[in-house]
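User: Last request for today: this protein with manganese (II) ion, please.
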Amino acid sequence: MALKEYAARRDFKKTSEPRARKGASRKIFVVQKHRATRLHYDFRLGMGGVLKSWAVPKGPSMNPAEKRLAVQTEDHPYAYRTFEGTVPKGQYGAGTVEIWDRGTYGNLGGSIRHGELTFTLHGKKLSGAFALVRMRGKNWLLIKQKGS
Ligand code: MN
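Assistant: Here's the final one, the structure of the complex with manganese (II) ion:
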């Protein structure tokens, strides 16, 4: 996917979001609360110099019984991990973005390609083991693992 889709959706003369450049491959995660047309939470994992991204309408849950729909969206540049602010009207994702949680993660198993990925989050709000499981197309579930 690289960052072509990210760049194609944005006009960098109008938005202050980071340019489409690859960055470090640190194992970080960020959740950005995005008040756009519909409020959602963007869950992003640093991988391969970009942020693999999912929009979670209800936001992540620490309750293993609450499986949260997570719709995969375009890869974002690594620099997006610190982005907060306003995306102007008329631009893709117009609205406000604020960091809801951030931290590091560790791999437990699986891969995005195989549609199942488990990892441990070390954040302030989110901690312990989680799974992302692909259902169909871009639709995944984000699930807290029991007892972790
Ligand atoms: Mn978003």
